[in-house]
Amino acid sequence: MEHPLIHVEHVSKKFKKEAALKDITFSVQAGEIFGFLGPSGSGKTTTIKILTGQLAQSSGQAFVLGNPVEQIDESIYEQIGIVTDNSGLYERLSVYHNLTAFAKLLNVDKKRIDLLLTRVGLIDDKNKLAKDLSKGMKQRLILSRAMLHQPKVLFLDEPTSGLDPVTTEAIHELLLELKENGAAIFLTTHNMEEATKLCDSVALLNDGLIVEHDSPKALTLKYNQDKRYQVLLEDDQELTLPHTAASIEQINRWLVNDELVTIHSCEPNLEKVFLEATGRELV
Ligand SMILES: Nc1ncnc2c1ncn2[C@@H]1O[C@H](COP(=O)(O)OP(=O)(O)OP(=O)(O)O)[C@@H](O)[C@H]1O
């Protein structure tokens, strides 16, 4: 296996006496979207801060692009992108000039600016000042800025929270493109649908501990103990059947008689997996 672009080994973080992260370990490879899922206060932002050199861990080791996080300096920002609450914008500059400032710093062709602004739906607002943007527009500008230089590693703290479905979809497409180009994407989200759709693997974080770590599909199958099937019949009846020999026979009869319109297995979603694994709700 190639060297991971993000590697975290037994990292813990204490704030005074309170443990915010307890011995967490994971890796993110090139071309992987990794979802970090957990309720408020579980340690997601703390992890991003450690990985981006804004906060020191109390113990353990972490590496980004092969560099120990303790050694992160400005030069790494040419290769990584960060989207967090505190990703500041130049409030008095326009949308466009916020991006040209970064394009210059990061040696990016200015043509990419218009392309990105179009993709995130900000092209008609390119001359607006950052201070006059709505929250969602600011978020889109911060995202464009983080993706401007097609970073090898991208950290996103709740990237689509508060965005409308159309913009969210556009952002998802951009993230999938970056992934296709080999970026490692670390994403925190409360949104389980987003995680299921985008992430190759997810870690469920509860009180600073990773309680599960696998692909969304593997996790939903693992927690699918009470197997059931949902069927829709020709006469509009909708039924949920347990996984028993009698049900299978019944389903077979419907099939033979051409009475079955749809059939689905009922795996739990990630929200239910989280509840099962931790005994608490995700949000
Ligand atoms: N600078 C700090 N000083 C003291 N405690 C802190 C500090 N930063 C975070 N914490 C604590 O660490 C824990 C984890 O916080 P963190 O911000 O990482 O959570 P989170 O999962 O990102 O939550 P949210 O989804 O609400 O952003 C919380 O108990 C928080 O109070």
UniProtKB/TrEMBL annotation:
It comes from the Bacteria. Keywords: ATP-binding, Nucleotide-binding, Transport. The keyword ATP-binding applies. The keyword Transport applies. It holds the Pfam family ABC_tran. Residues 6-232 form the ABC transporter domain. InterPro entries: AAA+_ATPase (IPR003593), ABC_transporter-like_ATP-bd (IPR003439), ABC_transporter-like_CS (IPR017871), ABC_transporter_ATP-binding (IPR050763), P-loop_NTPase (IPR027417). This is ABC-2 type transport system ATP-binding protein. It comes from Sinobaca qinghaiensis. The lineage of its organism: Bacteria, Bacillati, Bacillota, Bacilli, Bacillales.
